[in-house]
Every structure is written in C-alpha cells, then in structure tokens.
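Practice problem 4.
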C-alpha cells in the first residue's frame, strides 16, 4: 500500500467516524496555526442548492483564460479525491495530499482540535493555493453556508446560485430557513450575486445583505440572461454579449453562466476578465457528470441530478435531447434525500428502470426505491452500479436512450468503473430481481 493510499484510508475513516459536525472554530484555529493561508489571495465564494459547482467551474475557467493562476476547490469528487483541489488544470499531486495531511494533522493537534474529513480537505486546499501563489481561488461551499468549513473566508464576492429544498435535516425544511443558512456566506461590504433566487428566499437574502452592507447584483434586476442552445446572451453590469458558446448543456447552464458573469463583473476592478476570455472559457469548460453524453447508439447520458430541482432541470432538457427515443433509466439516490418527488418526475418518462445503490448505508435501498417506480414501468434491481449499468446497456436498443441519474456518487461509480468497459456484454442477470 502506498503512502497516498494509507492517507486516503485515514481520511475516509475520519469521515466515517466523525460524519458531519458544523463548527467554524476548528477550521479557523487550524488555519491560524498555519499562517491563515486563505487571506493571501482573493476568493470567489459560491453557494447554492443547485448549480454551484457549474458556476465555480465557469469562474475558474474564465479566470484561467484571462491569464490568472486560479485555484478551484469543489466537492464531492467523482473518481479521485485530488479532483477537489486544482490550480489551473492541474489537480493537487498525490504526494502533496500525503504531506499536507500530515502537516494539517500536526497543526490541528497543536491547537487541540479534531477536524472532520471536509475540514481537513478545506484546510489542505487553502494551504496548497497559498503555496502555489494563486492569483485567486474559486471556493465552492460544501453544504449550506453559515457553518460550512469554507466560511472562514472574507471573499471578494459571495455568490448564491439557487435556493431549493435539499439537506433539510441540516438546513431547515423551508425555503426561507435554507436561504438564511446559505446567506451565512454574505460578508460585510462584500458584493453578493444572486442567481435564480425568487420569492421568500430572495427576500431573506436581500435582508441579510442589507444588514451587512453588502451590495446585491441580482438576476432580472441588474442583469439579464437569454439565448438558446446555440449560445448565451447577457446584458448588464457592463457586459453586452451575444451568442457566447457554452460547453455545458441545458437552459439551466445558461442561468449558471449568467451568474458567473455577474460574479466576474463584481470583481472586475481586482480581477478584470475580457469578453474574449469569457468566450474561450465557456466554450471549453469541463464539468463532468452534468448532461454528459457518453454514447450515441443508444444515446447515453450521465447526469448527477441529486434533488428535486436538479431532476426537474434534467427532465425539462430530456425531450429535446432524446428526440423521441424511448428512455431506459439507471437510478440511484442517497437515503437522506427526499427522493420520491424525483421518482415522480422521472418515472412517467421511462420505458424501463434499473435501480441500483451507491455509498451504502447512506445510499437508499434499491428495493424501496424500485417499488416507487413500479406503477409506471418495468423495474429491475441490481445493487452493484457497474453491473446495473452493464445490464441496462445490454438490453437497450441502439435507437433508444439510457440516462443514469439520481446521485453524483452513481455518476462517479460509473466513471470509476469505466463507462466504456461497462458497455460490454452482460452476464446472466443472477442478482437482478424484476
């Protein structure tokens, strides 16, 4: 076993032992011991129920295209932990994960604090970015905002993409309550960009911004997004852009691109980015697992939609993408999600469904989820996601379509298992239960 593998085992064991425990003091003390690296570069801090990863990826790509040495911190990873921490296109080296884990362990011990898995990675990211002398870093909130480990920063801009019902056991069970938690990233005097946030959630966030003297840049009021699949149109905040190509598919990605442009406008005095850099970046940005077309016959799509709003966005895009092809679904979901509305939105679209499991015991049981699909279409159960993938591929005609969705962990398992390798002839079903 390599040092890197041993380090991963230790970190993942920490996640299993400590779980989620939201307190900023531990992270702040560890970072203080390490010289407060998060203060050495401007930060674009991105929260939201859906879209925050895509917005973060677009911001990172735009900063890079403009010539900045930019860091990117996101979660979760799909295949390899090093995906979470990048400088430019380079993931953090495995050797750096090993050495920084040891260094952060020592710093935490010296301050008498026990960090969680996510806190460890957050501290490692800030130290790595400082030592790599980044010009700026895009930091995606892990969960919520107010008590998220990333919320020890004083950002150049705070971004909130959307507000929806998700992680309700931690954030609250109403949109205003969730907005208040995510609004915890709003800092005194720092600009706030609001994406597609409306109703009571928007009222809460505007109120928090007013209390903290944070100027607000808001979709439909300060900027407008339009266009089509051919490209993005954007007006406001000093931009007038037409037909900006987007590598990421879907109308919701045009909204995300608009949010990213508003954030760039908010920091242009410190980090100017020109229109040509935006065009190059948005045309080439890579953010795997979001309407990712990985095959053509059958049409095969991986999408990490993992809550009701995300599935609704996927369902809205499917008619145009499928173009009349019958849909065969591969589905897995986490047990702590409100997954029944996800099933209700997807099931009427499906010709058949294979339900699998990821990240047990946190993942939802395939049998219970499968039962909820049965009133709509034939269902098969296969707990192993790669075997489930092989099963659905082997039984889907070339003129049909496959969509795998419900969890980023499912998408990650398929990437890790080798999507192309999974498209081989399948063994007899065995464990499959129709």
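Answer key:
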């Amino acid at each position: 076993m390599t040092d890197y593998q041993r380090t991963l085992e230790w970190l993942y064991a920490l996640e299993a032992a400590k779980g989620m425990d939201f307190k900023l003091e531990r992270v702040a003390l560890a970072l203080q011991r390490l010289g407060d690296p998060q203060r050495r570069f401007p930060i674009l801090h991105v929260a939201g129920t859906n879209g925050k990863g895509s917005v973060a990826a677009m911001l990172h790509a735009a900063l890079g295209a403009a010539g900045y040495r930019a860091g990117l911190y996101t979660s979760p990873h799909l295949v390899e932990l090093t995906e979470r921490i990048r400088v430019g296109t380079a993931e953090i080296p495995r050797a750096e994960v090993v050495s920084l884990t040891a260094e952060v362990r020592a710093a935490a011990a010296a301050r008498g604090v026990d960090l969680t898995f996510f806190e460890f990675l957050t501290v490692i990211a800030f130290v790595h970015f400082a030592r790599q002398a980044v010009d700026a870093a895009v930091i995606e909130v892990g969960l919520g905002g107010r008590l998220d480990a990333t919320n020890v920063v004083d950002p150049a801009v705070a971004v909130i993409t959307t507000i929806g019902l998700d992680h309700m056991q931690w954030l609250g069970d109403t949109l205003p309550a969730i907005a208040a938690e995510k609004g915890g990233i709003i800092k005194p005097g720092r600009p706030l960009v609001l994406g597609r946030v409306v109703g009571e959630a928007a009222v809460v966030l505007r109120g928090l911004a007013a209390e903290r003297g944070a100027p607000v840049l808001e979709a439909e009021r300060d900027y407008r997004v339009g266009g089509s699949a051919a490209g993005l149109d954007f007006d406001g905040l000093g931009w007038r852009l037409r037909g900006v190509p987007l590598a990421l598919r879907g109308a919701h990605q045009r909204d995300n691109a608009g949010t990213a442009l508003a954030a760039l406008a908010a920091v242009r005095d410190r980090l100017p980015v020109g229109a040509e850099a935006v065009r190059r970046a948005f045309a080439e940005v890579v953010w795997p697992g979001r309407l990712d077309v990985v095959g053509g016959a059958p049409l095969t799509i991986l999408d990490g939609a993992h809550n009701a709003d995300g599935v609704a966005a996927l369902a809205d895009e499917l008619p145009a993408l499928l173009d009349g092809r019958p849909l065969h679904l591969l589905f897995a979901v986490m047990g702590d999600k409100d997954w029944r509305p996800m099933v209700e939105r997807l099931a009427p679209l499906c010709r058949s469904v294979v339900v699998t499991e990821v990240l047990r015991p946190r993942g939802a049981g395939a049998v219970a989820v499968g039962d909820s699909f049965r009133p709509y279409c034939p269902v098969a159960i296969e707990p192993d996601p790669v075997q489930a993938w092989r099963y659905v591929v082997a039984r889907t005609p070339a003129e049909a379509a496959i969509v795998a969705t419900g969890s980023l962990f499912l998408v990650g398992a398929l990437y890790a298992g080798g999507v192309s390798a999974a498209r081989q002839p399948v063994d007899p079903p065995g464990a499959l239960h129709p």
